[in-house]
Amino acid sequence: MNKLEKDTLCYLTGCMTVGVLLSFGVSQALWLASANNRIESYANVFLNHAETVAGNLTAALDELNNTSGEPCGPHDLDTLKKVTYEYRFVKDAGRIENNTITCSAMWGLIPAFRMIGDSRLTKNNVKLWGGVPSYFPSAIKIDVSAKHRSFVVTSPTAFAPFESPPAELSASVVSRDGNTIMRTFGAPSGEYTNQRTCKSLL
């Protein structure tokens, strides 16, 4: 093989190598772009849903705190039942004083159940308890949001569409200040990161 043939072979080999590397680089870039778009789409859907749930809970608390009458009286219990029925993401609603629950729509009068566990006070003056023992006979943990003399329990199905995310994706519902994690879906793998803050979350 003469020098010209060797040079031509080396040139062709180099071109093929560059072509393979370029194709690999382009395919990787396209794959990463697709993965990022997928994560972005999932994050936006989750964020919008979290905003909807937060708005629903906040509106329920505001309505409860704008009512008058004797707390836990017959008329008040009717009001609690009405709010629980009308607000999609509210499982139960009731009255609370100094972290002590006195009645609820589902259970009526309650013998002074004091909330245990740490709570966080948000900028909207809402106290949040995440995954705390329930005030009714059950081992189920509940998420409670309280403001002034009222509280609501988040429906356990509020985030049902996100309970089984794809393996590489995860999401969390947190308080506005980021200090209270209410719920987490999926196991963070660290492979992809796409953080969103739910600005109106209580």
Tally of helical segments: 2
SSE topology string? HHEEEEEEEEE
Uncertain segments are 28-33, 190-201
Number of strands: 9
Described by its quaternary structure, the protein is single chain
What average pLDDT do the residues reach?
75
Strand content: 15-25%
Principal-axes geometry comes out as: elongated
Q: Kindly state the percentage of residues in helix.
A: 25-40%
Radius of gyration: 27 Å
Class by alpha and beta content: alpha+beta
Biggest sheet details: 7 strands, antiparallel
Strand order of the largest sheet: 3-2-1-7-6-5-4
Between the first and last Cα atoms, what is the distance in angstroms?
A: 78 Å
Descriptors:
two-stranded antiparallel ribbon; single chain; alpha+beta; elongated; disordered C terminus; 25% strand; 202 residues
Short structural description:
The chain is α+β, with helices and mostly antiparallel strands. It has two helices and nine strands.
